[in-house]
Write a structure and sequence with these properties.
Structural class of chain A: alpha/beta
Strand content of chain A: 15-25%
Largest sheet of chain A: 6 strands, parallel
Oligomer: homotetramer
Order of helices and strands of chain A: EHEHHEEHEHEHEHHEEEEHHEHHEEH
Radius of gyration of chain A: 19 Å
Number of strands of chain A: 14
Distance between the termini of chain A: 21 Å
């Protein structure tokens, strides 16, 4: 058995950081060797620094690691970043400049001109941008994954784009509480309630990031895909799992059966390469009239598969459907880990 | 003080029936004199026949009324129907034929060629259809109110139609549990969950009823308004209050400020006539970025005002906004009572 | 009509402060004339300083008042305190020393040797302590109301103590989210969850305050009532309304029917004096097997009545029952307002 | 690898039956070979007969089995019963008379004079009653597991009884929705609410079953343990996991540290025999002040470990603590499977 690759987790005590630690426990390629967080946590063992908010407890070996600061030197070449956007920008730049591969869930660098915004099944060719980026940094680099809701949307759109072309998309989200981190949303705002708003430019991200992801990297630069997206976001009383109501106008007419076939047939490089965190089928198409549902479907394939249901004809757009993505697994930490697995398989890790 | 008008409530033990009883308690024009429900309840005093699911208790005088069956003769000329659609069709026909004014919340007759589907602020002229209907029945008639979500949608669209014309509307709903009656949705389907489906043709109603309501009654028949609607519905863990995410393409360009002015200025016949259940302002436009919210806004003006918020520009449709309607008050029993108040004010009660 | 008494509200922007403002709107005796809060809010109009978390909006006239600081001079003789316990102690002392009647919901002075911990129906004689206190302060004074859960417990116990004597009480609480203020409990800790713990000495308060309230003030000092209380507290996903499962061992044997009669017959000075906020019946005894329930029963008599149900025989204690109290009305702001009404009726306001 | 033992599942389409199917998927000893349910389901493949309410889907091979009726002959010697109590009594008698080992979660036979009410860690000696029972039936037999809440209570009490003796216990439950099956509790009764009542004699079971379990089987009959239990039950908005607030008076004085040591040291025959479903530690003692919590702790050791927290001194009883049990795993299907594993290990399967 090959030696595992030591990795560091930045922002390790936060909501996304905890998911990194949980999902990397027992990972076949990577081993959590270093943890970093804010000054408040630095110097403490992880079990003390971190109020573990996931079921059960932190893995025993990680619990005993001492938390460091984000600007201290790291031995690990590969760093996962679950940093808050208030600090991620600068820290990730610094670490890339020091030669690390920074695989980040933060939004700060997602739209930088030479940073891949990566979903391995959808746009692995965007890794070509690393050539450009590494020339700039001298060797290290940043690779990002999209906003949690965008992962679900882009995965559901990718096969439709490939088969029929995309012209316009409207999406309304019903997003889980864990998307706001911890403590996040106040319980009095969540119980018996809906909040028709999410801060931090959530609608803008949903309108822009899918066009970047489904666009091309060519001639050394990214081109946005040529379709319009309109988004309207909501927070609902669900712990995990973002539901998306999606209206789609394709360039070529697609009836629901054709759309279903395209969605079901969808596979990508992670499936071909059998990456450890890759779901067998990135999209599960459900045919029961009342699915997908967060409580019943968010954990499919360990939370790495997106569920799509109610694919039906629409008088206004042509097609409409529901998509469900586990926001802190496929939509955050799991997305970044799959990105790192692809980097490893491609031989791109420093 | 004038004598109150005796009224009967059909389906009095159900969820909508209970709201009728609650809202008619202390009503200045109407007095609940008769109750009817299924055979199982008939012959019992209301307090025994009915498991009261609203806060507090049923009004004392109504609690002592004996529940009758729906096909027995009624003394009251005005009957409110909260009947289930499985029985409403036939029963309401029978009672109209007997000369009663049946003001119904059931869906069965909403689209009949001579039955008004009425929102008093929006389409009071549809009452002209009663001339046609009464010729058919010999005197009695049926007047219906729309599906709960449609009331919120049509009220929000009416001033935009008047000011700018409507071309296309997409609406995604986040509907309250009380919309499914009692026991309705199983708690295991509601807690920590979203159900992307509502039975009984909910999406079809949202796509058709607004066009009927916002259309004309002319030359003895109804014409659907000429705009397209696409709907996608969800059940969420909210007790009362349907939230609607609405995208609107108007015929004339409307910027958000103009739209807000049209929404705020909106008044109708119930406001002019100062009908007892009429809200002062049918539409409350909210400017906080995270409103309307069901828990905070559903009770505005006793649940009879619809709240509209987040009116903003949209790259795809031109406009988007959020609307909130109290589904069992403005969207059901309160809607029917307001309809009856208009019939009374117009001198149309038998 | 007599002129209303101007009052000030301390901590006016917080959760309890907002309830004060809401409940005092249209009050027949009192008029909110002054508002105070932290330095952060001072100098702003209330509508700006306060993020209103109750349904609807703050009363129009109060919304325009400028918020002051708590140590500035007040014109109003009567001050309601919804201050956080981190600051209430000192501020309330200062204001009493300046001659104000401070009617407080804060816990700081509840057990002071000359401060009444008052439930007007239960221990109005504890107001005798004001003679002692006013000698100390020179005229002003502090009167407190109990912890939210304690109000429900003490009201349910008072008639049992009077009729049968009390020996031991065990109480397990299922407390509402609003008891923790805003933002309070994180939504991820509330949805699909129970937290078996409440900070700030909640169990200790439940074990001590009822004995103070049900004890005597004699010979210039308070005596704790001679019975034991054991408490175990929980936070549940309820917006408002604390549920208490209570086991009671009385000194004289009491069967459930006798207990019910004692509970139903219970009235106090607020009922005799017909104080404006007094419920007609402080205790509503419910006989349905599954009541009281927060959603259905918390609003009884405007939230000022405590509901008691499931009064039944118990093999271990003799009696057990369920009690429900609206924690932010009868258990907080409403409790303080009723205290002030009693002070007014007794001619004790400065 | 040894051949697996074919088993049947009775009531296979219900909530407990689905858990049996889920937990037996991949079981090292047992293989689901037969399914039975009501006449309505009989003759259909399981995937059609059953609306699967657990996350994901039913195991593929079981999904294709044809559902039979409960009174038809079974090939499998071992039958798991998740039948509703309305039919379980007679059916289980019949099947035991036919020579089957019926391992049942139903309440009907729990207190029969020769039927073990078994928790393998607590009272394995109660299996001695099978000698008596088999003489009666001629070979087949029934073994039952306790009510869901009782499993948690009895497991937490067992080491305290062994170490200190038990005198009196008061327990207040906050029970999960899944305990009521599906559709079970109406969502309008669950959201923003607590129901202080559970039908079917829930309190009586909690007061009686622990005394049976912790009592002896001697001289051919069961003796109830000599301590009193009082229970008060509640339904709360939690999907899975019953929380119990427990007060305990021991015969010998036990301080919290001693109690914790007894709880932590607790092991039983399933642990010694390393039964496949046995948790390593039946009781997890938690020291964080706000634990156990359903969402964070119910899945410990696959839902087979009971969590105990807040072990503290109590002025009234001596000790109090919180316990949490996964009601449909350790409290139902998992309990029965562990029972069957013990029967197998003891060579008691027919």
């Amino acid at each position: 058995m090959a030696t595992k690759i030591d990795v560091g987790v930045l922002g390790a005590t936060g909501a996304v950081g905890q998911r990194f630690v949980q999902l990397l426990d027992g990972h076949p390629l990577f081993r959590v060797a270093e943890l970093a967080a804010s000054d408040r946590s630095a110097g403490k063992p992880y079990r003390e620094a971190c109020t573990w908010r996931l079921p059960g407890q932190p893995p025993r070996d990680v619990a005993e690691l001492t938390v460091g600061t984000c600007d201290a030197p790291f031995r690990s070449r590969l760093l996962f970043s679950g940093l808050d956007s208030s600090v991620a920008g600068e820290v990730e730049d610094l670490l890339a400049a020091r030669g690390h591969a920074v695989v980040s869930n933060a939004r700060n660098h997602r739209l930088d001109p030479d940073v891949p915004l990566l979903i391995p099944e959808v746009n692995p060719r965007h890794l070509d941008a690393l050539d450009v980026q590494r020339r700039r940094t001298g060797g290290g680099y940043i690779v990002t994954n999209p906003n949690c809701g965008v992962v679900g949307l882009a995965l559901a759109l990718a096969p439709l784009q490939a088969a029929f072309g995309l012209e316009a998309v409207a999406v309304v989200t019903l997003q889980a509480l864990s998307g706001a981190g911890y403590p996040g949303v106040a319980s009095l705002d969540a119980v018996d309630n809906v909040i028709p708003y999410i801060g931090g430019g959530e609608e803008e991200k949903l309108e822009l990031e899918p066009r970047r992801i489904l666009g091309r990297f060519a001639d050394g630069r990214f081109e946005l895909a040529d379709f319009a997206v309109s988004a309207s976001v909501h927070r609902v009383a669900v712990t995990d799992g973002h539901t998306l109501a999606v209206f789609v106008r394709t360039r070529q007419r697609a009836d629901p059966d054709e759309a279903v076939r395209a969605l079901q047939a969808f596979r990508g490089e992670p499936q071909e390469r059998r990456l450890p965190s890759a779901p067998e089928r990135p999209l599960h198409v459900l045919f029961e009239p009342d699915r997908p549902q967060p409580r019943l479907d968010r954990e499919r394939e360990g939370g790495m598969a997106v569920s799509v249901g109610r694919v039906r004809a629409d008088g206004l757009f042509g097609l409409k459907l529901e998509a469900l993505v586990h926001n802190t697994i496929r939509g955050a930490a799991g997305a970044a880990i799959l990105n790192a697995e692809l980097l490893h398989a491609r031989g791109l890790l420093p």
